[in-house]
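Researcher: Go.
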Amino acid sequence: MRNIIGKNIDSINKLVLEERALYYNTLILAESGSGKTNLACRIRNFVTDNDIPTLYLDFQDSHEDEIEIRFKDSNFNYIRFEESEAFDAALDALIAQKKHIYMAVDPEYFSSKKEVKSKLSQTIQKTELLENYYYFLHDIATLNVFFTKFENFLVYMFGLLNMKKYGMTFLAQPHEMFEDPELKLLFTFLYIGKCSNANYFNTASLRTFPKNQFIYQYRTPYKTLLFNETRCNTVEIDEYVFEE
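Model: Structure:
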């Protein structure tokens, strides 16, 4: 079980993923080159080791030869979203076998009208995916496209997460959208890496973080009358090296 993903910098404790990480949502914020993909791979390994299929949505619309080798293990099944019968058939075949899916997606497929549900949204919300898959939503190059292109982002996320059985990991560039207090409540686990140009996270240290170093904040599992207590550590994620 690949549940040890790094260490706490201020103590000798290892950073260990617990079972609840499979059911609650994780947000990873950092600029390019800061280790977001490495951290996502570590979480993906943990999910796959728990026999839960994953849907990895790559909103950079990467071609297969552009994808990092660390994703290309025995669980790698690449597909590129398009509005066609051939795509639907290929995706349905993967879902029927509960295969892990790496789906390259062009965000332009989202509807430009709030009242219209795009074919992409319908695909992401397939019942078979919502009931059986852990989701990853990875890096939209132009965040404003994702936040303003289609149905209200917050409403969309609420709807998607309320329908899912398992959790989700959302990877994104730093953006002030994530300061929204309602949006913050959607995520139990938060990792913030290097943010050179962000002034709204209240810490200058983020500007000098090396690769794979994150501020890790999480809500405790203890039940309270109010919101769960949050705890915060600085952590270093182990580099994941996949050997063919």
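Model: The mean pLDDT is 86.
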